[in-house]
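Private note to self, pasted from the team thread so I don't lose it. C-alpha cells:
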C-alpha cells in the first residue's frame, strides 16, 4: 500500500493565503505531452514555479486539489511524483476524477492554497526607566528652547519634544558652495543686548565678531 502523502486537515496561522489557479502539465510553448506521467511531472514543476514566484515554498502548501481524467485507482501513477514533490510535507488533499478538462489534451490539473507566513511587526521599544517632568514643551524652536530655559530657571523640570532631527526651528545653517561675501543679519551696538544675543549667552553658544 502506498504510504499516505497527505493529512485529513491542516491548521495554518493567520496570514495571507495564496490561491493558485489550476495548473496543467504543459510546456513553456504550450505543448502538451501525450503521456499521463509526463503531464504530472510538468504540472508539479509549473506549480512549484508559481509557488516560488509568490514568495512561498512547497512546505507552506495548505491544500491541494488534483483533477485527473479517466482516473484509475489501481495504477495511481501520480503518487510517487507527489511524494517526491512534497518531501516530508503533508498538506490536505483532494483527488477529483473527471471525464475531461478545459483542453482536450489535458490529463491532469492541480490547484493549491498556500499559506504565506505573515511578517511579524517589530517589537515596540519602551523606555526601561520612566521619569516624570513638571512641564512638557512641544517644539524645539527658539521659542521652545527659551521657554525651557525659563522653566528650569524657576526650579521646574521639563522635557522638550521635537519631531525633526534638529533643534532651532526656522534657523538654519547652510554651507556655501564657493567663496563669496558674507553679510551679518544682526548689527549690535557695544553694550546693547538683543534677545538673540541673550539666548546665545544663556545657551553658551559662540558668536562671530562683526
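Design output:
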Amino acid at each position: 500500500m502506498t504510504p499516505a502523502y497527505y493529512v485529513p486537515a491542516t491548521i495554518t496561522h493567520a496570514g495571507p493565503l495564496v490561491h493558485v489557479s489550476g495548473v496543467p502539465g504543459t510546456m513553456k510553448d504550450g505543448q502538451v505531452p501525450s503521456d499521463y506521467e509526463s503531464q504530472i511531472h510538468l504540472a508539479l514543476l509549473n506549480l512549484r514555479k508559481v509557488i516560488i514566484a509568490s514568495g512561498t515554498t512547497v512546505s507552506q502548501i495548505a491544500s491541494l486539489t488534483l483533477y485527473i481524467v479517466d482516473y484509475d485507482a489501481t495504477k495511481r501513477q501520480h503518487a510517487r511524483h507527489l511524494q517526491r514533490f512534497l518531501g516530508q510535507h503533508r498538506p490536505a488533499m483532494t483527488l477529483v476524477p473527471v471525464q475531461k478538462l478545459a483542453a482536450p489534451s489535458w490529463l491532469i490539473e492541480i490547484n493549491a492554497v498556500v499559506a504565506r507566513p505573515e511578517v511579524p511587526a517589530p517589537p515596540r521599544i519602551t523606555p526601561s526607566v520612566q521619569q516624570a517632568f513638571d512641564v512638557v514643551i512641544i517644539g524645539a524652536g527658539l521659542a521652545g528652547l527659551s521657554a525651557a530655559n525659563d522653566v528650569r530657571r524657576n526650579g521646574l523640570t521639563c522635557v522638550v519634544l521635537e519631531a525633526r532631527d534638529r533643534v532651532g526651528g526656522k534657523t538654519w545653517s547652510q554651507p556655501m558652495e564657493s567663496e563669496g561675501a558674507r553679510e551679518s543679519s544682526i548689527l549690535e551696538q557695544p553694550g546693547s543686548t538683543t534677545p538673540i544675543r541673550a539666548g546665545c549667552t544663556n545657551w553658551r553658544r559662540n558668536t562671530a565678531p562683526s
